[in-house]
Fold these 3 entries.
Entry 1:
Amino acid sequence: MTDSQPNNPLHGITLATIVEELEAHYGWDGLAERIDINCFKSNPSVKSSLKFLRKTPWARSKVEDLYIATFSKPNPWGGR
């Protein structure tokens, strides 16, 4: 078995990087509009968001999905 995950668009990207890049792109208000969770609405910070997202799988999934939708480049040969 190998550690390579060629079909995983998040392979090698930390949750901290995901949150930081989304915040830089949308801002906290924009993130709160797209994903309705308090860590983006009430006194948001990267640290508090990471703490919440690490113990809340459904919220982490929404954040990861938004990251993929925002930053993934379409594959010119089809697929992602």
Entry 2:
Amino acid sequence: MNRAPHLAAGQRAEDQALELLRHAGLTLVARNYHCPQGELDLVMTQGETLVMVEVRYRRNRGFGSAADSVNARKREKLLRAAQHFLQQDARYRRQPLRFDVVAINETGADRIEMDWIQDAFHAD
């Protein structure tokens, strides 16, 4: 199976999400932060708040929407990756932390809908 088109689509979705968030005033701290616990697509700040952003893209809704794909297992991986990030960079440890999701769904020929879900889930 050739994953190159999927990877390119995912990269485009991440670029679109980053543009949306920057336009809304967020500042990029890190992109595609990898660690043994997982990956954080975008780490940004909005004022004093550190924002971990998961970007999800769906070509079709046969298996649910992009937002639906951020299930309990995915949230747990994101929480662990965020903990790792904070352990590595002490300057953000005292800032408020928020988890956002940017869900991107294709709706037709070169058309998408983007949904920015702020405070999508919490570390319980």
Entry 3:
Amino acid sequence: MKHALIDSDVLLDFFFDREPFSRHASYVLTQCELKKLNGYLTPVIISNVYYLLRKISSHERVIKKLNQLLTLTEILIIDKQIILNAMNSKFKDFEDALQNYACENTGKIEMIITRNIKDYQASNLSILTPEEYSNLNTSL
């Protein structure tokens, strides 16, 4: 089974039903639900998604959606070493560096699924858009 970080933008595409991206975001989460993909998030992703969903919905409703999401995914740890790695990296975006090093630290995550490909150029992991991930898996 594949292990992948699911970036904030993918989750927001799903929750906000942002076309044309929501179909592929839904596919990624369905793969997690079917146990064909081990999806991972970071505390930063949860915080970002909460903040943006809270702008359009109640605290209770957002928490309910996040609880549902957490039944499909696991949370990665961001500790001092990951923060230091991110601060001293070649990543231009600190948040993306945090995500990347949280993934690398596990030793089992193979890819990051994001629409934000350009900001992960310094990563040693495979970086796929949700569409690329969907196409890869439906062509097998």
